[in-house]
Amino acid sequence: METLETPQSTEDFYKRDLVKPDGRPMSLYSRRPIAEAIEATNPKHDPVTGMPHFRWHPLRGEWVAFASHRQNRTFLPPKEYNPLAPSRSNEFPTELPLGDYDIAVFENLFTSMNPRAEVAPSEYVPTRPGNGTTEVVVFTQDPEQTLGRLPLSQIELLLKVWADRTRALGATDQVQYVLPFENRGVEVGVTLHHPHGQIYAYPFVPPVPAKMQEAQARYFAEHERGLLEDILSQERSASSRVIYDDGSVVAFVPAFARYPYEVWIAPERRVPSLSILSNEETVCLARALKTVLLKYDGLWQRPFPYLMALYQAPTDGGAHPEFHFHIEFYPPYRTREKLKYLAGTEIGGGIFVNDALPEEKAAELKAVEVELS
Amino acid sequence: METLETPQSTEDFYKRDLVKPDGRPMSLYSRRPIAEAIEATNPKHDPVTGMPHFRWHPLRGEWVAFASHRQNRTFLPPKEYNPLAPSRSNEFPTELPLGDYDIAVFENLFTSMNPRAEVAPSEYVPTRPGNGTTEVVVFTQDPEQTLGRLPLSQIELLLKVWADRTRALGATDQVQYVLPFENRGVEVGVTLHHPHGQIYAYPFVPPVPAKMQEAQARYFAEHERGLLEDILSQERSASSRVIYDDGSVVAFVPAFARYPYEVWIAPERRVPSLSILSNEETVCLARALKTVLLKYDGLWQRPFPYLMALYQAPTDGGAHPEFHFHIEFYPPYRTREKLKYLAGTEIGGGIFVNDALPEEKAAELKAVEVELS
């Protein structure tokens, strides 16, 4: 095979790091060599003047991110303009260059964290510059695709891209936690329908993964086993909530699901992050992920909205043998017609009410037949 | 004044405790004596067979409430039937009896907690019966009213009703925390537009107030002052985020607001719960609450949706001198047209991104003129 670019040492994909005309970094990933002629593009835009910073919430004990941006004023693209499709005109360049590659990652233009932020306003609560990074991950050049309908090889590549971004972002001193996620559907606020996700790289471990890490560390210290390992083994022996299991990767509605159609996907082996997965495990994970996504879309024969989060160990320098990488889905529908709104008890109290039993919802998802191509 | 019912010892309102035909408790509150002839009603319904219980989420360290109810099948009311309006026909009784009273409180029919729940399924995570209570508070008999447009005297009465319910529910051994709240608007999932709120009485202190309590206890132990007292004093001296201040009660957008239009209302005096407020403070709180609600509705000249939560000290037997009662609003809009969706970073990470500065949003709310009638 002709290589225009050095493949990643032991990886079976190609990568090119570029810089957009406005200075933002971009990386292209592909199964095939990436032509050197490809140059990064970006939409025309005014300078982005947001001064991202954090302020400490003293009653909840968490950081709040502040980023006020001026909306773009000079850039008036056609109505159907898609900033995530490859550029086709010089007049209206997009975030993606034209050319042969599979997946693109770039720093978000309207970011709520900025690795170069230097100042924070002085307040009576602690503040700090909004250091960190937010990236956009474009799953495919095809705006009509969905993550679940992508070929298995493309989903495998995406898992490797997430692993590579986690390594790259987590390697900096600044970043303590890397959270890849996908918001899918207008129901969760998505306005661009081109298949894409985001990566937030925080300068601290955010509350949700921090709790997960602490719970797993306590359990590991006490039992010398992983908490999620034992959950997997319990779910497997109960079997009523397991919707996919190939012996290496399991998908299930956990006994304690907060959302009716909540699904977790976890490798059997306790690995702290995606990059530790073997190639065989990555292949299995891609199959499990595609299966869950197609079951979701098959359930009501329509695109199924969700938030999908990938939980890996903090990138704070610790080895984190206790942390068990897994994926969680938070779907906003509780029935075909009814959304689950987060209100009084969830937002105000922090206690979720699930009006469905995980056993019943798992049975619904089990019953959806999917064919992996 | 003729009394058909004993007024509450030192209170200036009347109360009658009733029992609905289906066994659920109900209380009526009024500025005027309540006729003994009034009998509690309820809509016709099948037996409610949900078995509410809690399951422990081991990675997040929180209880999740499960309650699966059969939907009512025999009860087919007219399309415009409002279960919170007073009953007008024997054929379709509502939750409220006909008669002269101001505010009604009753146990929710489709409850996610039940004081009489006795069993919980056995699982590999801890489980427990769904003990606790959920109540509906009907703010007025008039379905066309809104909380903000109610007369000040009615809002004062509502504050006293919330205080009375907190006392009554919190006095049981079962209940460790009482959370009154209002979800307002279809944007937060409200389907009944009759002005009403809910009260959740939990058998434990839920995560959000637990964090508040711990943060305030730590601060109080260290500084011998209240955390919220110091926040109030800082916000008052900065003044840019204070939208109402009568010397006794302050309303402000906190420096660390997670929602663009987040507003807190707090009495200057550190009181752990509503019932400790003096009559004068209650009058001031009613004026502050009405002012904030009218500013919200005046902002865009349309009903402003929100979640409003009233945070009081746990009812766990402790005195909680550290706890400073206050009200928090979580409004779902970030601009006139755009909702703030909770997605990747908020739900997946637990870090809120606010794309507006509290100083700016406070200025908008300050500028809205309101007239208290």
What does this structure look like?
Two copies of one chain form a homodimer. Chain A contains six helices and 15 strands. Chain A has two domains: 14-205, HIT family, subunit A (2-Layer Sandwich), CATH 3.30.428.10; 208-367, HIT family, subunit A, CATH 3.30.428. In chain A, α1 packs across α4. In chain A, the strands form two sheets. Chain A has an eleven-stranded antiparallel β-sheet with strand order 1-2-5-7-9-8-13-14-12-11-10, with helices on both faces. A three-stranded antiparallel β-sheet of chain A has the order 4-3-6, with no helix packed on it. Chain A has helices at 152-170, 207-223, 227-238, 279-299, 344-349, 358-367, and strands at residues 14-19, 25-30, 53-57, 62-66, 103-107, 127-129, 133-138, 177-184, 196-202, 242-245, 249-252, 263-267, 306-311, 326-330, 352-354. Chain A is of the alpha+beta class.
